[in-house]
Write a structure and sequence with these properties.
- The protein is built from two helices and four strands, in the order βββαβα.
- It is an alpha+beta fold.
- The strands form two sheets. A two-stranded antiparallel sheet has the order 1-2. It has a two-stranded parallel ribbon with strand order 3-4.
- Strand 3, helix 1 and strand 4 form a beta-alpha-beta unit.
- The longest helix has 12 residues.
């Protein structure tokens, strides 16, 4: 999937997927929230660095990327 195609996807942040009200009147809402930090270790695939960074930004997460020595030239930004 190319980075430019991610624009058409809706952001998953703060989207409610379910809601209910308890007998005492308290309302429960299930929402999508970021995981926080996503770690990835990968080898020589030139698109992985850009794809992982783009998906992390779109979903509101941070990414820790560790490319192998074979991907050194791809990772230099």
């Amino acid at each position: 999937m190319h980075c430019a195609s991610w624009r058409r996807f809706l952001t998953p942040l703060a989207r409610s997927s379910a809601a209910s009200t308890l007998p005492n009147g308290m309302r429960l809402i299930q929402k999508a929230v970021p995981m926080g930090v996503v770690g990835m270790i990968y080898e020589a695939r030139p698109n992985v660095t850009v794809d992982a960074a783009g998906l992390a930004l779109k979903s509101g997460n941070a990414a820790v990327l560790r490319g192998g020595s074979a991907a050194r030239e791809c990772n230099e930004v």
